[in-house]
Amino acid sequence: MSKICAVFGGSRGIGKAVAKLLVERDYKVAVISRNLAVAKATTEEIGGGHLALSCDVSKEQEVQRTFQEIVKNIGNVTYLVNAAGINRDALLLRTKTEDILSQLSINLMGTMYTCKVALRGMVQQQEGAIVNIGSVVGHKGNAGQSVYSASKEGLVGFSKSLAKEVAKKNIRVNVVAPGFIHTDMTLSLEETSVNHNIPLGRFGEVDDVAQAVTFLLSSPYITGHVLVVDGGLQLQI
Q1: Is pTM beyond 0.90 here?
Q2: Does residue 148 carry a catalytic annotation?
Q3: Rounded distance between C-alpha atoms, residue 1 and residue 78, angstroms
């Protein structure tokens, strides 16, 4: 059976690194992004035979249509990675209601929608693995990121509970919680002022996170786990 993985948020950053590594490990990949042109550019970069789709994960009907397209074009999804996410950093008192709702709808509810749809096929196959991308900030907390933190830590409770719901169907659900990683989201940070708080003394790379994601996708006896990839930052709590 082909190893088919849907990577939401797969056109850039961590998601793109995951898609690249999965292709190297003989997975067939659907790269899903809100921007179809960028998703297509990623599939061209990683090689032929892979699928590019556009989807707004905050809209359940779009998520359903996306999975229908994947099944029609490359087959049933056995593996799912949820890397789509946004941040709108601000102190809560200064945060607009629409920014609260957008972070929750994309970072948290979007993952719930993709998992719900993906599980239908996984239950039929009696096999599957899901990795949701959280954040160490969800556990550690950070001023100016209260809403983002809530959306990411919400993934932990959701994933652990879901893992218990589907374990008897041979489906695993885990979380990877990155720390400070070189992505578009961290471009505005002054690295030298942050590195002294990281025991390994540096930001991580997207490939560091991709390695963790692919490990959890392929590990048959790990479920309900949160794998932190942060250079030891959580040790400073």
Answers
A1: yes
A2: yes
A3: 10
